[in-house]
C-alpha cells in the first residue's frame, strides 16, 4: 500500500509542479508589466516577455501584415474581383432606391452639411460674382472694338445670317403693307400729308381719290419689296451698319457712367432667368425619377467599376502613402498591456489552458516514473 501511495503522491506532486510551471511561464509572457528592482538591480525576467519587447513586436507585426497579408497584389486582386464589384453595386443601388422613396430638397441636403439658407446665399453669391466679372470685363475691354470681342466663328455666322434677316424684314414689311392695317396706315399718311400742306393739300385732295391712291401706293410698295434690287439694297445697308457697329469701341457703346446700371440690369436679367425656387425646393427625387432606371442599370455599375479600377491601378501608391506597417505598429503601440493580455487570452485561452493541463499530465507522468525508479532502484 505504501508503494502505491508513494507513486500516486509523486504523480500528484509532479503534475502540480508541471501545471504550475507552464501556468507561470504563460503568465510571464505578460507579467509583470513593469521591471522590478531590488537594491537598484533589475530582477531577471522582469518585465514580462511581451512588455519588454512590445515595440519590437509591434514593428514586426506591422511588417508581416504589409509583407504577407495586405500586399499590393492582394489588394488589387480583391478590388478587381467581379464579386466585390457586384456586391458594391448592389449595396449602392439599394441605398439609392431607399433614398428615392423620400422627398428631400436640395435645401435640406445642404443643411445637413451645415450650409443653411442655401437659396438666399447662393443668389447673393452669384449676384456678387456676376457683377464683379461684368465690371472686370467692361473695364478691361473699354478700348477694344466690338469686332475684337466677338468670337470669329460667331462673327462669321452672323454675317451669313444677314441675307436671312433681309428676307425676313422684307417679308414682314410686305405682310404689313398687304394687310388691312397697312392699307389704313397708308391712307392715314396721305390724309396727314394733305392736311400738312394747307391749301395746296386741299386742292390736291379735290383731284385725288384717297382710297384709290392708297391702294396704288400699297401695290407699288409690294412690288418694290419683291424686287431683288430692293433686297440687295437693304442687305447692303444692314451689312454697312453691322460693319460700323463692329468698328466702334466698347466705350462708345457703353460710356463709363452707364456701366454700373448696365451691370446691375444684366445681373438682374440673368438671375431672373434662373429657376431658383425649383432648383432649391423641388425634391431631388422628383428631378431624378425619370432617370432612375438609367442610374441603377448604367450609371451606378459604371461608376463602381471605374472607381474600383482607379483604386486598383493606384493601390501601390495608396499603400505607400497610407504606410500601413507604421499604422499597424502605431495602433498596437496604443494598446495597454492589460488589453493585449486580454486579447491574446480571448483568442488563445483554450489553447493556453491545454498547455497548462499538458504540463500537469507530463509532470504527473514524470512523477510516476520517478516514484517507480525511487522504489526499485
In words, what does this structure look like?
Pfam families: DUF445. Keywords: Cell membrane, Membrane, Transmembrane, Transmembrane helix. Belongs to the UPF0754 family. The protein is mainly alpha-helical and 377 residues long. Among the domains are: 118-144 and 249-282, no CATH class; 145-244, no CATH class. It has helices at residues 2-27, 49-52, 54-69, 72-79, 82-100, 106-112, 118-140, 146-149, 152-178, 180-196, 198-207, 210-226, 228-247, 250-253, 259-273, 276-281, 284-288, 292-313, 315-322, 324-334, 337-376, and strands at 37-38, 41-42. α4 (72-79) packs antiparallel against α18 (292-313) and α7 runs antiparallel to α15 (259-273). The longest helix is centred in the C-terminal third of the chain and has 40 residues, at 337-376. The protein starts with a helix and ends with a helix. The model has no long low-confidence stretch (mean pLDDT 80).
- The rounded distance between the terminal residues' Cα atoms is 18 Å
Shape: rod-shaped
Roughly how much helix do the residues carry, as a percent range?
over 70%
Spatial arrangement of strands, main beta sheet: 1-2
What is the mean pLDDT? 80
What's the story with the biggest beta sheet? Answer: 2 strands, antiparallel
Gyration radius from CA atoms, angstroms: 48 Å
Helix and strand composition category: mainly alpha
Number of helices: 21
The H-and-E topology, N to C, reads as HEEHHHHHHHHHHHHHHHHHHHH
Beta-strand residue fraction: under 5%
**Unreliable spans:** none
Count of DSSP E strands? Answer: 2
Protein name: YheB
Membrane topology: Multi-pass membrane protein
Organism: Listeria seeligeri FSL N1-067
Keywords: Cell membrane, Membrane, Transmembrane, Transmembrane helix
Amino acid at each position: 500500500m505504501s508503494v502505491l501511495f508513494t507513486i500516486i503522491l509523486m504523480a500528484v506532486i509532479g503534475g502540480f509542479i508541471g501545471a504550475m510551471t507552464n501556468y507561470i511561464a504563460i503568465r510571464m509572457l505578460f507579467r509583470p508589466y513593469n521591471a522590478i528592482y531590488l537594491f537598484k538591480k533589475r530582477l531577471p525576467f522582469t518585465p514580462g516577455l511581451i512588455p519588454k519587447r512590445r515595440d519590437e513586436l509591434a514593428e514586426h507585426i506591422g511588417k508581416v501584415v504589409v509583407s504577407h497579408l495586405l500586399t499590393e497584389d492582394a489588394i488589387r486582386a480583391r478590388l478587381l474581383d467581379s464579386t466585390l464589384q457586384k456586391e458594391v453595386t448592389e449595396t449602392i443601388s439599394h441605398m439609392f432606391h431607399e433614398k428615392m422613396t423620400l422627398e428631400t430638397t436640395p435645401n435640406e441636403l445642404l443643411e445637413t452639411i451645415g450650409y443653411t439658407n442655401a437659396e438666399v446665399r447662393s443668389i447673393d453669391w452669384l449676384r456678387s460674382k456676376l457683377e464683379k466679372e461684368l465690371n472686370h470685363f467692361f473695364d478691361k475691354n473699354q478700348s477694344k472694338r466690338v469686332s475684337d470681342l466677338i468670337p470669329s466663328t460667331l462673327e462669321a455666322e452672323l454675317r451669313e445670317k444677314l441675307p436671312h434677316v433681309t428676307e425676313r424684314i422684307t417679308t414682314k414689311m410686305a405682310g404689313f403693307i398687304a394687310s388691312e392695317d397697312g392699307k389704313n396706315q397708308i391712307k392715314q399718311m396721305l390724309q396727314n400729308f394733305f392736311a400738312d400742306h394747307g391749301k395746296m393739300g386741299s386742292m390736291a385732295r379735290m383731284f385725288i381719290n384717297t382710297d384709290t391712291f392708297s391702294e396704288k401706293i400699297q401695290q407699288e410698295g409690294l412690288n418694290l419689296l419683291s424686287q431683288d434690287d430692293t433686297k440687295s439694297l437693304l442687305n447692303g445697308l444692314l451689312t454697312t451698319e453691322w460693319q460700323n457697329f463692329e468698328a466702334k469701341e466698347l466705350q462708345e457703346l457703353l460710356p463709363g457712367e452707364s456701366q454700373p446700371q448696365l451691370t446691375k440690369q444684366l445681373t438682374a436679367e440673368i438671375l431672373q432667368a434662373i429657376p431658383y425656387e425649383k432648383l432649391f425646393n423641388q425634391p431631388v427625387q422628383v428631378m431624378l425619377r425619370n432617370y432612375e432606371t438609367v442610374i441603377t442599370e448604367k450609371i451606378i455599375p459604371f461608376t463602381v467599376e471605374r472607381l474600383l479600377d482607379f483604386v486598383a491601378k493606384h493601390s501601390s501608391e495608396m499603400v505607400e502613402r497610407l504606410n500601413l506597417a507604421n499604422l499597424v505598429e502605431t495602433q498596437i503601440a496604443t494598446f495597454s498591456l492589460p488589453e493585449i493580455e486580454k486579447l491574446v487570452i480571448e483568442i488563445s485561452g483554450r489553447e493556453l489552458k491545454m498547455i497548462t493541463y499538458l504540463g500537469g499530465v507530463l509532470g504527473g507522468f514524470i512523477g510516476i516514473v520517478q516514484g517507480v525508479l525511487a522504489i526499485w532502484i
